[in-house]
Amino acid sequence: MHHALHAILTGERQGYYVDFGSLAALAKVYTSAFLHDGCYSTFRGRLHGHPVDRVRTPAYRFIAYLQDHDQVGNRALGDRLAEITPPRLLDVGAVLLLTSPFTPMLWMGEEWAASTRWPFFASHPEPHLAEAAGRGRIEEFATYGWDTAEMLDPEDPLAFQTAKLNWSELSAAPHRNVLALYRRLIELRRSEPDLQNPRLTAVAVDYDEPARWLVVHRGGLRIAANFDEAPQVVPGLAGEVVLATGEVKAVDNGLSLDGQSAAVIRVG
Predict the structure, then answer these.
(1) Terminus-to-terminus CA distance in the chain, angstroms?
(2) Using an 8 Å Cβ cutoff, are 75 and 146 in contact?
């Protein structure tokens, strides 16, 4: 789930993101938990994974997230999703995560789009380990095409200090707006039985790759996302707008979603 959403939201395709970034990949993850379920992994250069038993395995056994300390800390600069993703797409990611059938994990400060970076930091007592760790990271990230010139030395206390959250952001725009969205989504997840259904077989996904829209079916709810910058019409979609991050308009053949926005629709 992380790789699929990250690749779509950021446009990154290097390294282990190479097989991700399509709506087809995201749709498979939503309904099967893993993209690589015995199929070919380009990054690994071999077949990888095993299929999940969708009938016997409840979705809550899988942890889904947009960010965590590994995925951010193992970037060259420790830049968070909020730094490399348009704000509107960041909201779309939150909607898709917190309405998914999986157990969502929120990573410190994500819920208000914290601007602080999370650079890798360490305190190796052995000098040779410290030198090897720093050198290894530079060599690895160079193969990803990342700029390593601004990388902090993991042993530099500044790397640790930089990773500390700025709690004053909570009350400032745009962070307070992101926090309000997360709170609304958590409330929605707790109050809607369809969002608590753990059966993977009860999840279906429609998408249009060229138009860049996707709709997740969760019982009587539809979670619609438009990843394109321009408004897109989702054909055949109609109902009550329960939550929206942008403008939603009813049109003759469906619902028009604002560019880079998501909505939760109650149908029937």
Answers:
(1) 29
(2) yes
CATH architecture of 2-116+164-266: Alpha-Beta Barrel (3.20)
pTM over the 0.70 mark = yes
- 113 within 8 A of 175, measured Cβ to Cβ: yes
Q: Nearest 5°: phi and psi at 41?
A: -105, 115
Strands 213-218 vs 254-257: parallel, antiparallel or unpaired? unpaired
What number of other Cβ atoms are within 10 A of residue 97's Cβ?
A: 22
DSSP string, 142-199: HHTT---TTPPPTTSHHHHHHTS--GGGGGSTTHHHHHHHHHHHHHHHHH-GGGG---
Q: Which of 181, 162, 17 is nearest to 78 (CA)?
A: 162
Phi-psi region of 45 (alpha: psi -120 to 50; beta: other; left: phi over 0): left
Using one digit for the tens of pLDDT, what is the confidence trace for 223-255? 999 999 999 999 999 999 999 999 999 999 999
Helix (H, G, I), strand (E, B) or coil at 83: helix
Nearest CA to 62 among 70, 71, 52?
A: 52
Max intra-chain CA distance, the chain: 68
Numbered ranges of CATH 3.20.20.80 in the chain: 2-116+164-266
